[in-house]
């Protein structure tokens, strides 16, 4: 409840805007459902055996999550972000992508990138700001550079704002800072501010810490 109150205070910044729609995406077991519970009660709709959509509505804000690892789901996925004639949808204002940071194999991160790219390169989503939430950071997590180099978030779009944040979905730790950035990007876009064309941003403090770790590791190898 404490985290829900903390997030509700942050999301109040969006209350005066038109309805807001966020996508919460990620591979299986990345922590999507756990994260959604931090925002409120989940409504579940099962289209097929393997395609279940979870939704949380908080005031004028909707969070929607669906599977992305199967190309056969594409027509179902588009129903939640692409308007059809006579069926207008609330445009997607931001995307939260849950990345399991306990993955140790580079190929797993590359696969996550490829699955995400299949969705967000659609015309309706190509410039939507993207928060990459490296989940399970309380466990044996990957460093920022490993995620960045293999996930290659800079290639997701040359005009898309990106940011990587380490989070712990079970407690919400680290998520507030990421959401604050995403909310600010939405406010800029709704006020006519410039939100495209700038280079991807990251956590400066997080990068500094990782640089120290890398430098220390190299130093130890040299003296040994």
UniProtKB/TrEMBL annotation:
GTP binds at residues 26-33, 135-138. The keyword Magnesium applies. Mg(2+) binds at residues 33, 48. GO terms for molecular function: GTP binding; GTPase activity; metal ion binding. Keywords: GTP-binding, Magnesium, Metal-binding, Nucleotide-binding. Pfam families: Arf (PF00025). InterPro entries: P-loop_NTPase, Small_GTPase_ARF, Small_GTPase_ARF/SAR. SMART domains: ARF (SM00177). PANTHER family: ADP RIBOSYLATION FACTOR-RELATED (PTHR11711). This is Uncharacterized protein.
